[in-house]
Amino acid sequence: MATVPTSPATMQACKHAGRGVVRLCPPPPLPRRRRLSYGQVTTKATASSGRAAGGRVGAPVGVSAAGDEEGDRIRRLQNGSDVRGVALEGEKDRAVDLTPLAVEVIAESFGEWLREELMRPEDEELRVSVGRDPRLSGARLSAALFAGLAGAGCSVFDMGLATTPACFMSTMLPRFSYDASIMMTASHLPYTRNGIKFFTKRGGLTSGDVEKICDRAAHKYVARKMGLGSGRGTTPPVVMRVGFMSAYAEHLRDIIKQRVAHPTHYDTPLEGFKVIVNAGNGCGGFFTWDVLEKLGADTTGSLHLEPDGTFPNHMPNPEDATAMSLTRSAVLAQRADLGVVFDTDVDRSGVVDAMGAAINGDRLIALMSAIVLDEHPGTTVVTDARASEGLTRFIASRGGQHCLYRVGYRNVIDKGVQLNADGVETHLMMETTGHGALRENYFLDDGAYMVVKIIIEMVRMRLAGLQGGFGSLIMDLEEPTESVLLRMNIMGEPKFGKQRGAQAVEAFKRYIQEEKLSGWVLDDCGDCFVEEGCLVDTNDHPIDIDAYMYRAKLYDENKRPQGWVHIRQSVHNPNIALNMQSYVPGGCRSMARDLLDRYVFVGKRSQ
Known about the structure:
Layout: H1 65-75, E1 78-79, E2 82-86, H2 100-118, E3 126-132, H3 138-151, E4 154-161, H4 164-169, E5 180-184, E6 193-200, E7 203-204, H5 207-225, E8 239-241, H6 244-260, E9 275-278, H7 286-292, H8 321-334, E10 338-342, E11 349-353, E12 358-359, H9 362-375, E13 380-384, H10 389-397, E14 401-405, H11 409-421, E15 426-430, E16 436-438, E17 444-445, H12 447-463, E18 482-489, H13 497-513, E19 520-522, E20 549-555, E21 561-569, E22 575-582, H14 587-605
Parallel strand pairs: 3-4, 3-5, 4-8, 9-10, 13-14, 13-15
Antiparallel strand pairs: 1-2, 2-6, 5-6, 6-7, 10-11, 11-12, 15-16, 16-17, 18-22, 19-20, 20-21, 21-22
């Protein structure tokens, strides 16, 4: 495949897009974001401390190309708005790169960045909470994380096994109200992986924030590999253990009790309901014991509640076919009213209704849209651009407005924040993977909170004597004839995966523009109702580009639309993801074959 110049490939509204029409057009070329290099700052770093004025670490004198490569090991751990890497041996062609030293310098750099962001003097306490999922590498890497935070002068509060949303809420709930929080998790990725997610009281960090932190950490890493800098002291850091998850569970229970306001048993509004939870041996078991059962629900038949960092039954993932199938079977066997599937760190969820219908992807967005639009008529719903046209019509039929945006849960949430700031009332932001955030809940993607909203609706419907259960709310959702996800692996060294992925995605756009893929058209028109189109950043500081992507439609020789494909570079692995939706039977296979013959194979021959 030919190498082509790369430019940020988001989808953006054309200036001529009017009300009722969305334009999914590539933006004009933008300069690549300049990587901050602390080595360019005039600082002095001593061998005894490794710290520079202002907390920044300059590149050690005499660092060679080998030193640059060592630093890039840390920079490559950035995964959009968080950090992810291989923490255990066992992956083919992937060496361990998320080492204790890597975690320590990243945590220390976060602590220094946080102090600068909050403009706190060195002698003022910074309180940071830490949670983790049950991965086998968690305990060892947590110790390194604690040391790094302590090295930056932070007081560390260990929440132990926790969820990602709970980490953020530990910065908000009274009695805790930490300055920041870190969650150690790699979500639905294999047990050999691990990662770090960062929060302040403003929410999750942006890709630009994490890039700065990783660049700072890269210089620390190089210095310590060379024997410079202080590194970890011999005295272990002081870490205070806190039981935050019980407070978070109480917070969720109170929301259900207050909003249901059951007329006969206020404190146990779930009496008479059967709920199945499939935690996938991740962090979601607490929702069964500390939320549902304490509210009176019968959870008999729930699955894989005990944490197990090897995830022996299936990956905790609401998109996982095995997870949904097992949950569906349990719901039907127990005649339950609701089934719940959580991902590892509970920032995503999916559900099963009483009839055994799996509700995830577009179906989950439709269900949440129906609930939210009933509460906030006319509100805008932001989704990623993989959502179906049927979902757009569903939202419009209920008086809502649908904003399509760039793939990536952080992108979708940030777009919702921006729209609200611009005066466009936006209460729901959801990605088709199950990440969902609500304005009423700090714009936080919280899988447990999404289920809380569904539970409240389920109880209200029964109290009102309505038939059909919550699944009836999406009976009129039109679904695509076919929907397929394919992945193309990027061969070669993984460290070049993102670069090659960006080149391949840009080549796809260029092939269409040069009419090498006849019948394919870059998707520049759809249904949208946000003033002047959705897919444009109108704020002074546009959202960071964390991946390259385009959407294109295929038309047959009679100009009839066959379907569309959304192509994007993965931020998790060295591959390219192809989401396809077809309007006709067999359409996905035809589109895949066409791309294979005229794009992939042709690209290989041109290399």
